[in-house]
Amino acid sequence: DFSLWKSAHKIKMAFKGEDHLDSLPLPVQRMHLIQVDSVQRWMEDLKLMTDCECMCILQSKPISIEKDEQNELILSSQYSTCDSLQLLLKRAWIISTELTRIAQKLEKNRWQRVHSMTVRVNCHVRSMINEYNTFTRTPSEEMHQYEKLLIEKCSEFTAFTERCVQTEDEQILKSMKSCINETLTTVAQYFGQLIELVLTQEAQNLLRQIELSDSMCITELAISSLFSLTQEGAHLCRIIAKEGGVVALFKICRQDCFRCLYPQTLRTLASICCVEEGMHQLEKADGILCLADILTDNSHSEATHAEAAAVIAQITSPHLTFTQHLSNFLENMEEIVTALVKLCKEASSGEVFLLASAALANITFFDTMACEILLQLNAMKILLAACSDKHIVDTPYSRDQVVTILANMSVLDQCAAEIIEGNGVQLLMEMLFERSSSGNSAEVAACERVQQKSAVTLARLSRDPQVADAAVKLSCIPRLIKLCRSPTERNNSDSVLVACLAALRRLAVMSPDGLEDSDFQQLVKPRLVDSFLLCTNMEESFV
């Protein structure tokens, strides 16, 4: 059936290239690998993508004119609030996509396509409003107003495009095009405002349940639904933060009766705090002190400590441009760092270690005093020991966190002795060989960071003759030369190349006999920029 194939093709193209992992803040995220059967996905989405003009009138009519409580019960229990919101968001995404496509077709004057797509948008809008009104019981007056405006504008839009299809006069079509563009803009504006109102109301309802309910079950379901909303993007996180979501969740984290909900609550907080509004709320709620209390309380479970570490990792991310929320962080930093080192040492799984080490890595960027605290806590020894346990440090992401901490600590002169004592030079040498086993783009990027930071750490530590001597004995120089000369070894990464050139030059000063004359002439003697250009052009063909 061609129409079914066409619908399936639309779905395939709509989802092509959508990778939410890339939009998440670094350096730490939990990796969720979801494998969904393509036919199953197609069947779930087909009902939202089919041409539904013929169903428009039916969807606007009640099945029974009598108030049938049994029917109402079936309708309201068919989906949970979370499922209904997911359905609403999916329908909204389809409408948004269709409006974009209408604008593209309008530019090309493809009037027949514009009209058919306008009819389809009209139907989707009516369906979305009907679906939402089915599962909500308290729509606001403002929402009703926007629903009415949107439906009226969609009908006007459809009438406009229908007239365009019925005429062939180019002058008339040209004059109507500006009106259609204006109507399309208004439809998009009303649609955006309606969705904003709907999401704000749902966030308010969930937060009201969290704040007012004494029931463990209701609170857990509300937090779960709130977490699902945060996974839909930064805009929803901003809405939740503006409605007081961070304050409400920290209130849960301060009540012993909800201890079993702490991990789930903290996970939701970490998601909300990826936006600036969430950070401001965290400061108002005195959230850093609460996190410090949780991390230092040994009566909490490892899962709770791990999720608290995830929040710390999120709010201290060096990729965030807003840091005013961390004004109180210094007061609690020593307690937090001590608790995170302990969590790294006692971690029972790779994920727990990843979250704790990521938080530590971010803190070492935040303040140099953190490196001195880590040195006093023998953190170097703990991290190097963890790297020898393949069940704990089991991914390039974990090694990235460890080598980040080592690189930032290597600015301290006292680190060299601990690196040698813990066989750290051997570990850095192994990290120069880091390669992705899956070819996944996120994993490849993590491997590049591991190579780059291990070379940076070697360059910094090799100012100590003992470290330089150990590196030469472990054949670090040949490996660095290969990384410089072979783009495939470094995955064509320029940052890895620069780090390797810097490390090679430092080792060449300490051990000049380790290089052949051609390597010295090309990689060490020239200016760094000249060696860089030479290495980046090595595989160019001039044939």
UniProtKB/TrEMBL annotation:
GO terms for molecular function: cytoskeletal anchor activity. PANTHER family: INSCUTEABLE, PROTEIN INSCUTEABLE HOMOLOG. InterPro entries: ARM-like, ARM-type_fold, Armadillo, Insc_C, INSC_LBD, INSC_LBD_sf, Inscuteable. One of its GO terms (cellular component) is apical cortex. Gene3D superfamilies: Inscuteable LGN-binding domain, Leucine-rich Repeat Variant. GO terms for biological process: apical protein localization; asymmetric cell division; establishment of mitotic spindle orientation; regulation of asymmetric cell division. Residues 91-543 form the Protein inscuteable homologue C-terminal domain. Pfam families: Insc_C, INSC_LBD. This is INSC protein. Residues 34-78 form the Protein inscuteable homologue LGN-binding domain.
